[in-house]
Amino acid sequence: MHQGDDTVTDRTLGIAIHGAGWVAHAHAASWLKSAHARIVSVSDVDRARAQRFAAEFRLDCDVRDDYRQVLDDSQVDVVDITSPSPFHAAQGIAAARAGKHLLVEKPIALTMDENRALRDAVAETQVKSVAGFVLRWNPAVETIKSLVGSGAIGQLVYAEVDYWHRMRPTHHAWQLHSRKQTGGSAMLLVGCHAIDTLRWLTGDEVVEVTAVANNERGLFEYPAIVVAVLRFRSGIIGKTSVLLDCEVPYQFNMDLAGTEGTIRDNRLWSKRLLPGQTGWTTIPTILPDSGDVTHHPFDGEINHFVDCILQDRESHCNMADAFRSHEICLAIDRSLAEGGRAVTLPLGERS
């Protein structure tokens, strides 16, 4: 088991990776580092791609193009769903009903009906689950959460997280990401990382959103520049933005202001901790400053998931929790569709 675990087990989990694309490579590299996991299946609608994937990682596993065979396989304990976004919810529901634990890449759903159905299927079957909000394991995010939790900046009054990532038609997944049917929206495609990080760092829930957007060049089938103001249950004011069609290097801004200090990415101003401070203190850490999946902390996410299964405990990033982050994204999209009207949460049962 991993450092800090309460129990020790020799159990090895059988892992099925479904969807042999870009992010699946990063997942596989992390699964292979786990002493308690073995990849037993790789599947994709394109069997040849799945075969190339298995060969690249020198995997001794089954290679399939039929998802039903994955779910029927008694060797499979966990299904890691890295297929295109429109299939995540249905494949996750099927995995849960087959009694498989599941890791679902974000977005876990593109509609509220899918979002609810996946959450409910996991709750009903009581399998363990983790959503692909991998930035919860980023060292800078972990540091900020610890500082906020310790009271280093007092009571939060303002929180902002932004996802800025120039995306062009040369992007390897452009045909999927730029279309509404397969990408969903800027918030669902990538803004969900910012929303989830806001929820994680504040420990609070959003009760109202108001959003504006533009799409000047029309490269995307949905607004590519989105800004939303958020009101949290505790009274915190929040803001998030997604910039996809602009000239900017990858940037994941994190700003939290409190009654006794402020954090800006890896910079700290805290009169409580550092009363003699005369300027920002820079914290040596790893920022989430790249869109490359090889930069993401999948080792931490997958180690956490393995521990949750083996110790029979729920993840802080399970489908029930991820449901809320996606609900906020969909509320922002609704605000845009309704001309910037304020939308309250939770959303209605049918939306």
Question: How would you characterize this protein structure?
Answer:
The protein is 34% helix and 23% strand. The protein is α/β, with parallel strands linked by helices and 351 residues long. The chain has two domains: 141 residues, NAD(P)-binding Rossmann-like Domain (Rossmann fold); 179 residues, 2-Layer Sandwich (Dihydrodipicolinate Reductase, domain 2), CATH 3.30.360.10. The chain has a nine-stranded mixed beta sheet with strand order 14-13-12-11-7-10-9-8-15, with helices on one face. Strands 3-2-1-4-5-6 form a six-stranded parallel beta sheet, sandwiched between helices. β12 and β13 form a beta hairpin. 45% of the residues are buried.
Estimate the global geometry from the Cα principal axes: globular
Number of helices: 11
Q: Give the helix level as a range of percent.
A: 25-40%
Order of helices and strands: EHEHEHEHEHEHEHHHEEEEEEEHHE
Low-confidence stretches: 1-8
- The number of distinct β-strands equals 15
Largest sheet: 9 strands, mixed
The CATH architecture of the largest domain comes to: 2-Layer Sandwich
Alpha carbon gap, first and last residue: 42 Å
CATH hierarchy class name of the largest domain: Alpha Beta
